[in-house]
């Protein structure tokens, strides 16, 4: 991949998903996040399962939206 997040940027992004209402207005940030997520180094070193569990507790609709975006990207490739 060309661009990458630093560990701090990656963690900041996943944390921000817990505090906003995700919608199509966030698609650019989500697509960038998912692009960086394809680098498993970021997924397993910068965020933890607990980050996603917290999102599920605080904003379950955001976790659903994020998963739907992953599914959508898989369908369009």
Helix content: over 70%
Cα gyration radius (Å): 12 Å
- Uncertain runs with pLDDT below 50, 5 residues or more? none
Terminus-to-terminus distance: 17 Å
Largest sheet: none
Strand content: under 5%
Order of helices and strands: HHHHH
Explain the overall architecture.
By secondary structure, the protein is mainly alpha-helical. It has a domain at 24-76. The protein has helices at 7-16, 27-37, 40-45, 49-58, 60-76. Helix 4 (49-58) crosses helix 5. It is globular and about 25 Å long. The protein starts with 6 loop residues before the first helix and ends with a helix. The model has no long low-confidence stretch (mean pLDDT 76).
Features of this protein?
globular; 70% helix; mainly alpha; 77 residues
Short description:
The chain is an all-alpha fold. It is 70% helix and 0% strand. It is globular and about 25 Å long.
Secondary structure topology:
Blueprint: H1 7-16, H2 27-37, H3 40-45, H4 49-58, H5 60-76
């Amino acid at each position: 991949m060309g661009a990458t997040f630093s560990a701090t940027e990656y963690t900041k992004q996943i944390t921000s998903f817990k505090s906003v209402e995700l919608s199509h207005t966030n698609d650019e940030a989500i697509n960038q996040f998912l692009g960086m997520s394809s680098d498993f180094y970021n997924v397993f070193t910068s965020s933890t399962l607990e980050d996603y569990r917290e999102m599920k507790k605080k904003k379950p609709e955001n976790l659903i939206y994020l998963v739907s975006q992953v599914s959508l990207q898989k369908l369009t490739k």
